From TrEMBL:
Belongs to the sulfotransferase 6 family. The lineage of its organism: Eukaryota, Metazoa, Chordata, Craniata, Vertebrata. Residues 1-24 form the signal peptide. InterPro entries: Heparan_SO4-6-sulfoTrfase (IPR010635), P-loop_NTPase (IPR027417), Sulfotransferase (IPR005331). Keywords: Glycoprotein, Membrane, Signal, Signal-anchor, Transferase, Transmembrane, Transmembrane helix. It holds the Pfam family Sulfotransfer_2. It is a single-pass type II membrane protein. It is found in: Membrane. GO terms for molecular function: heparan sulfate 6-sulfotransferase activity. This is Heparan-sulfate 6-O-sulfotransferase.
Length: 171
């Protein structure tokens, strides 16, 4: 009988340890949203910058965009000289968004992506020039993980090098 009680105790301890490991995997750190009941209260949802202990916020956003700024419409002329330049900021979902740009956007002439190839062909309707400048359409033309400064200096020269001088748009 004593041997059986040891097995039951061992099973309970192992179950407890398993539950702790799963909890740490699902909810790492001290800010687990599943365990914080205050997070569901309207006061907590009102101001995301308010600290839990009511101390002044260490981070205050500098750029508050109005609803009009966020909902503005930008006309993109795929037949003209408009060009979308995708600046990939690492660890922000940029790879997924970049793939979405070449695979899922409904345009007059969508990008052509072939199985097994990383780059897609994104030409304007009736032309052999691209409307998208990203690693999924032009490759790493400006270097690996090019930042804003590198793209600003590099994109015009790369795009213009592929056009005849008389066809280059004035910038």
């Amino acid at each position: 009988m004593e041997d059986r009680s040891h097995k039951v105790l061992l099973a309970l301890v192992m179950l407890f340890l398993f539950a702790v490991i799963v909890l740490q995997y699902v909810c790492p750190g001290t800010e687990c949203q599943l365990l914080r009941l205050r997070a569901l209260s309207p006061a907590a949802a009102a101001d995301p910058y308010r600290a839990e202990d009511e101390t002044p916020a260490r981070f205050v956003p500098r750029f508050n965009f109005s609803a009009d700024d966020l909902l503005r419409r930008v006309d993109f002329n795929i037949k003209g000289d408009d060009l979308i330049v995708f600046l990939h900021i690492q660890k922000t979902g940029g790879t997924t968004f970049g793939r979405h740009l070449v695979r899922n956007i409904q345009l007059e002439q969508p990008c052509e992506c072939r199985a097994g190839q990383k780059k897609c062909t994104c030409h304007r309707p009736g032309k052999r020039e691209t409307w998208l400048f990203s690693r999924f359409s032009t490759g790493w033309s400006c270097g690996l993980h090019a930042d804003w400064t590198e793209l600003t200096n590099c994109v015009p020269s790369v795009v213009d090098s592929k056009k005849e001088v008389r066809l280059r748009p004035s910038r």
